Every structure is written in structure tokens, then in C-alpha cells.
From TrEMBL:
<protein>
    <submittedName>
        <fullName>ABC transporter ATP-binding protein</fullName>
    </submittedName>
</protein>
<keyword id="KW-0067">ATP-binding</keyword>
<dbReference type="InterPro" id="IPR003439">
    <property type="entry name" value="ABC_transporter-like_ATP-bd"/>
</dbReference>
<dbReference type="Pfam" id="PF03459">
    <property type="entry name" value="TOBE"/>
</dbReference>
<dbReference type="InterPro" id="IPR027417">
    <property type="entry name" value="P-loop_NTPase"/>
</dbReference>
<feature type="domain" description="ABC transporter">
    <location>
        <begin position="5"/>
        <end position="241"/>
    </location>
</feature>
<keyword id="KW-0547">Nucleotide-binding</keyword>
<dbReference type="InterPro" id="IPR050093">
    <property type="entry name" value="ABC_SmlMolc_Importer"/>
</dbReference>
<dbReference type="Pfam" id="PF00005">
    <property type="entry name" value="ABC_tran"/>
</dbReference>
<dbReference type="InterPro" id="IPR017871">
    <property type="entry name" value="ABC_transporter-like_CS"/>
</dbReference>
<feature type="domain" description="Mop">
    <location>
        <begin position="295"/>
        <end position="359"/>
    </location>
</feature>
<dbReference type="InterPro" id="IPR008995">
    <property type="entry name" value="Mo/tungstate-bd_C_term_dom"/>
</dbReference>
<dbReference type="InterPro" id="IPR004606">
    <property type="entry name" value="Mop_domain"/>
</dbReference>
<dbReference type="InterPro" id="IPR005116">
    <property type="entry name" value="Transp-assoc_OB_typ1"/>
</dbReference>
<keyword id="KW-0500">Molybdenum</keyword>
<dbReference type="GO" id="GO:0005524">
    <property type="term" value="F:ATP binding"/>
</dbReference>
<dbReference type="InterPro" id="IPR003593">
    <property type="entry name" value="AAA+_ATPase"/>
</dbReference>
């Protein structure tokens, strides 16, 4: 518990034609819970359910000891009485109101006087560096300014929880950088639970304290951003954080991979022999050779064929088919020396200490 704020607890189930969402978790006061997932995973549906905008098939939502939704008990508090601050993807500012009145709107609708609402709204506009635009209407704002107004409007009501749906998605790359820095500051100062939806790995890493990964309406992994980046549970997350991920079974000290091949990992001690596991390998932990290395201290050595080369900022990513196939990062100098191209036969090597085998969550 932090100050006067308490957790947002939710156990929600939504059914809509082919789609089904089932999520149970809790955002603690002061915590930013990130919801990460591909398009169509159900992230917005979850936010709308919490906001009271999406009917549930089953479930219960409780904020600060107050039941907001309880399907079995027939409780459904309307959205405007949930004391939530919500920032939607497209901000949904009122086009006919000035910024001051946009930000003061929630306070007014809670019965606070016009003068007091305007004073408080002016405070928030100042905090978000928007004071000079107070009398403007939203139509004349840049994307970054509109985002900050939406955030000011959500925060001005002193919500008991904050819900943010892809708050930076509509911004260009440069604006995103400055608005992200502002958002980090505001979220750090926010004392109540916050839930932030994103499908951007960088946002997930810098803005959130804990992540809930949703795929096809199901929670596939939860943990801190660092834990998830280090030990992804699904191919979607592995791709997002840039790791090779394999499924397999530990047998006699090596992991036999489901897709063919085997890898020896040093950090498999938490696994029992015969256990199903996941194996993560950084693309930069694999070395490529055009000749079979005669003497290598690496415990893992296997052959493959180059299937593609992609220049990244400071290195070349090589896609190699084999057992197992892998993405391998090499320097431009190494690529030139090895003279790789599509179809080149190669040997891959990796040290056991660079390979992480862990239980499937
Ligand atoms: N109004 C609707 N009626 C019917 N199905 C819908 C509706 N809105 C969304 N869906 C479906 O529900 C599923 C979840 O959608 P949702 O918008 O929650 O996903 P999301 O994770 O937020 O995706 P995105 O990253 O694209 O915003 C998808 O299969 C989508 O096609």
C-alpha cells in the first residue's frame, strides 16, 4: 500500500464471437503494469473492461476495496463513477472545448466548481508545459501536445488508477522521445496503480515495472521487463527482444531440441533430467565459421546454411538454416572476411555459458 491508494484487482473474462479473453492479475499502488502483446491479443479489450466500457462474460474488478464489476453479484459501476484516469489511443479530446476546459472536464463532472476546476486544470497544464495553450482548442495542437493534454486530463481528476492505451503510438519518432521522457516522470510521481498497454518493446522496458504478456486473449508470461527480456516464454516475445528461442527436453546434460539438434547449456541446473524447457541464445553469442573449426573450446558446434543477411545499425544479422536454425549477429568486418551470401555453408559455435536453458513458465 502506498499512501492512500490501493491495488486494482481484476479477474476478467470476455467472449466476443471467435475471440476470448481471460486475464487475472493485480496492479499495485505506484506500480506500472505493462500489458504487452501483438495486434488482436486483447489489450484494448482488457482496458475497456476495466474502464467499464466492455461487458464481461464473467469476472470481478475491484479498485481500492470498491467493487467496480462483479458479474455474479450483478454489480457494474458506470465508467464515469470508477475514478479512473483513462488515456485512449487517439486521446479523444473534446474538439469544442479549450484545453483548460478539456482538462477541467472530469473535475466539473465530479461536482467541483467551475473556478476550482479551472484552477486545478491550469496547474496540470503548467506541469505538462502547456500553460501557453490553455485557451486553444485541441484541433490546433501537435500530436505530442495532444498526448500531454490527454495525460493532464486523466491526471487532473486525481484518479485511483490510470489506464493508458498505447499512449505514444500516434507520435512520430522524435516527438515520442520527448513525450516518453515526460510520461516516465509523470508515472514515477503517480501514487496509484497504472496499467499501460503497448506493443513496443522499448516502451515496455522503460515505462513499466512489471509486464503481463497477452497472446490470443491469454496471459503467456508475467514478470519484470528484465526477466521477460532474458527468458522469453514465446516466439513473439523472443522476436521482440531479439533472442533465438528453442523448445526442448533436457537429456543427459544436453537439451534435445524439438525442431532438431541439441544444445549444451551451462545454466540448466534448475532443470531435472527429462524436463521440458526453453533455450534462449543471443544472436551475438553465436560465432560463424566457413571451415569446421579444428580446435574450439565452445561446447556447441553445428553446421548450417546462410539463408539471408540483413544490415542492422552496427552489425549484420545473418539468418542461418540448420539444426537448430539461428539468427547470428556478426560485425561488418567479419561478414566481409567470411564472404557470406545466400547459400554459403557455415559452421556455428556457441559456448555453453552463453546458452540459457530454463523451465517453461
Ligand atoms: N468491436 C468489436 N467487435 C468484435 N470484435 C472485436 C471488436 N473489437 C475488437 N475485436 C476483436 O477482439 C480481439 C481483440 O481486440 P483488441 O482490440 O482488444 O486487441 P489489441 O491487443 O488491443 O490489438 P491492437 O494492438 O491491434 O490494438 C481481436 O480479435 C479483434 O478483432
Amino acid at each position: 500500500m502506498s499512501g492512500d491508494y490501493a491495488a486494482l484487482d481484476f479477474d476478467v473474462s470476455v467472449e466476443r464471437e471467435e475471440f476470448r479473453l481471460d486475464v487475472c492479475d493485480q496492479a499495485r499502488p505506484g506500480e506500472v503494469l505493462g500489458v504487452l502483446g501483438p495486434n488482436g491479443a486483447g489489450k484494448t479489450t482488457l482496458l475497456r473492461a476495466l474502464a467499464g466500457l466492455q461487458p464481461l462474460r464473467r469476472g470481478r474488478i475491484e479498485l481500492d476495496g470498491m467493487v467496480l464489476t462483479d458479474v455474479a453479484a450483478g454489480i457494474q459501476i458506470p465508467p464515469e463513477r470508477r475514478e479512473l484516469g483513462v488515456v485512449f489511443q487517439n486521446y479523444r479530446l473534446f474538439p469544442h472545448l479549450s484545453l483548460l476546459d478539456n482538462v477541467g472536464f472530469g473535475l466539473r463532472s465530479r461536482g467541483i466548481s467551475r473556478s476550482e476546476s479551472r484552477l486545478e486544470a491550469a496547474n496540470w497544464l503548467r506541469r505538462l508545459d502547456l500553460a501557453e495553450y490553455s485557451e486553444r482548442r485541441p484541433g490546433r495542437l501537435s500530436g505530442g501536445q495532444a498526448q500531454r493534454v490527454a495525460l493532464a486530463r486523466a491526471l487532473a481528476c486525481r484518479p485511483r488508477a490510470l489506464l493508458l492505451d498505447e499512449p505514444l503510438a500516434a507520435l512520430d519518432a522524435r516527438t515520442r522521445l520527448s513525450v516518453r521522457a515526460e510520461l516516465v516522470r509523470q508515472l514515477r510521481a503517480f501514487p496509484a496503480p497504472a496499467l499501460l498497454i503497448t506493443h513496443d518493446p522499448l516502451e515496455a522496458m522503460v515505462l513499466t515495472d512489471r509486464l503481463l504478456v497477452l497472446e490470443s486473449g491469454r496471459v503467456v508470461q508475467t514478470g519484470t521487463p528484465a526477466e521477460i527480456a532474458r527468458r522469453p516464454a514465446t516466439n513473439y516475445i523472443a522476436r521482440l527482444v531479439g533472442l533465438n528461442l528453442y523448445r526442448g527436453r533436457l537429456e543427459r546434460g544436453a537439451v534435445r531440441l524439438a525442431g532438431g539438434g541439441a544444445l549444451v547449456a551451462a545454466a540448466g541446473h534448475e532443470l531435472a533430467s527429462g524436463a521440458n524447457c526453453l533455450v534462449a541464445v543471443r544472436p551475438s553469442a553465436i560465432t560463424l565459421h566457413t571451415e569446421r573449426p579444428a580446435a574450439s573450446s565452445a561446447r556447441n558446434l553445428w553446421s548450417g546454411t546462410v539463408r539471408g543477411l540483413e544490415p542492422l545499425l552496427d552489425r549484420i544479422r545473418v539468418e542461418v538454416a540448420g539444426e537448430p536454425g539461428a539468427l547470428v549477429d556478426i560485425t561488418a568486418a567479419a561478414a566481409a572476411e567470411l564472404q557470406l551470401s545466400d547459400g554459403t555453408p557455415v559452421w556455428l559455435s556457441a559456448k555453453a555459458t552463453d546458452i540459457d536453458a530454463y523451465p517453461e513458465p
